[in-house]
Amino acid sequence: MGKYTCHLSKSNIAPCVFNRPGIENCPMRIAPEILEEAKKIYKDDEEIKVITKNASIVEAAGYIKWPRLKDTIEFAKLQGYSKLGIAFCVGLTNEAKEVANILERYGFDVTSICCKTGGLSKSDVGVPKEYEMKSKTGYMIGTVTCNPVAQALLLNDAKTDMNIIVGLCVGHDISFTKYSNAPVTTLIAKDRMTQHAPASVLFTHYGKSFFSEDIRNQKKN
Fold it and tell me: Which of 87, 44, 57 is nearest to 184 (CA)?
């Protein structure tokens, strides 16, 4: 089992971009057999081959010009998908409505499932009482947990060609992806602190301060 640290490359442009190995534990140096296995998959798995080809076409066509929703639309068109599913967080209902509206205007048949569908109790999946959320007025709002497995199964029943995640919680997105029959892409990664732009904290003073303080506090505890 290898330990790979591509993020420690000394160059801002990784040498592998030019098909050259980089740092000492570069996968191109120490795991050529795995890379050959990947090449074989691209050759033998027609679905993966086509998906990879079309993803690269979309990347080149819309580079810096298109938002991710446009990328998603053009990719779906290239794939020949007609029925798209949206698995969305109840807190992003307005965003899901806008996404569905735009997709339908492009001619797609859209099916959407809210994360709270099914009324699954948090206690049913072992969530401790203290993690049931309350509103600012004290009204209990968090006794029904998200139900990503049901979202996946319902979209499977709808026979969607591709499913789109709109703001599912961390972890719930994993469960949804695991049980989805159709391929899954993420349009919106939920991050309420940054208005759903999780990368925005990486290079700002506020973001760096937040993580520095949080790490210090965790070490104290």
Answer: 87
